[in-house]
């Protein structure tokens, strides 16, 4: 009974949704089978959200990618469509991007309910989360062999196939301004998918053209030299390290050029990198303006000096890791510098 009541209330809400009424542009029929009518602990909201599978892969399929789509909070018919991708490789866009970062419902360690996100991106866009490639999150392959044929190329192709089919299911977004955004290893996924779309648009039927306008990547993994230099330049341009230290790192670490490419880091590289990390002792390297807790960690009563939070850099690029580890093999920090890949 309770479920039936919820459905009726929801249908009424749909009938009264802005845009369905006088004058506003007519909306195409929605894939009602994918409509999410409520989640345990979900706060009441004025926008609709949808989730489900889209088959990808040619001839016989056997592969399906999972999506979760949030209409923009207001006037979704006037807002662009944005696809969000987490990285990893292997990170779930639902578990991380949607539930912990930019989605409207956050999962927090306190309380049993979902928490509204004051900074949800569906305030600005229609927000589509995709779990890719198969094997990640709820996305799956029926054939084990498909899980052995993974990589950036397959990820981009399947994500492109997903988008074309998804737009058939949500045709009102077909000509909508379209953006892709992502973080971390999506520094690979995002531009590679954008390129595939750009190339695919050439000579495609009008019906299959995706109106891509741009992409955005944050904390992106591109390549070691670029990523490491980026971290040091960021710290310098935000007054976290001095001009002197910045120059020392660039000079001593030969601007992080790979040794295979002729990079010749000097003896001063490791100490300079440790000094760089030391500058982050009291600062969250992933969010420099966020206050961090400087109180001693629990159990501090057993140690003489209060423990300060060490710079937590959980996905260190390789060269960076090698230098810091080589020079301080026993410290906590060198342990943290090991290749722990944060599945972001
Ligand atoms: C969680 O949601 C339920 C149902 O809406 C509500 O009764 C309860 O008070 C909420 N709990 C918290 C801690 O907000
Ligand atoms: C995978 O196999 C199941 C069970 O046979 C089937 O229901 C499902 O549709 C298949 N998925 C795809 C994407 O082919
Ligand atoms: C590091 O550990 C090794 C082996 O346990 C030990 O011999 C060495 O003295 C330690 N070095 C420092 C700086 O603590």
UniProtKB/TrEMBL annotation:
EC number: 3.4.16.-
Entry's family note: Belongs to the peptidase S10 family.
Pfam families: Peptidase_S10
Alphabetized Gene3D superfamilies for the sequence: alpha/beta hydrolase (3.40.50.1820)
GO CC term, one of those recorded: vacuole
Skewed-composition ranges (Basic and acidic residues): 333-344
InterPro entries per record: AB_hydrolase_fold, Peptidase_S10, Ser_caboxypep_ser_AS
Signal peptide per UniProt: 1-23
Keywords: Carboxypeptidase, Disulfide bond, Glycoprotein, Hydrolase, Protease, Signal
PANTHER family: SERINE CARBOXYPEPTIDASE-LIKE 35, SERINE PROTEASE FAMILY S10 SERINE CARBOXYPEPTIDASE
Region (Disordered): 325-344
Any GO BP: proteolysis
GO molecular function: serine-type carboxypeptidase activity
Source organism per UniProt: Panicum virgatum (Blackwell switchgrass)
Descriptive protein name: Carboxypeptidase
EC primary class: hydrolase
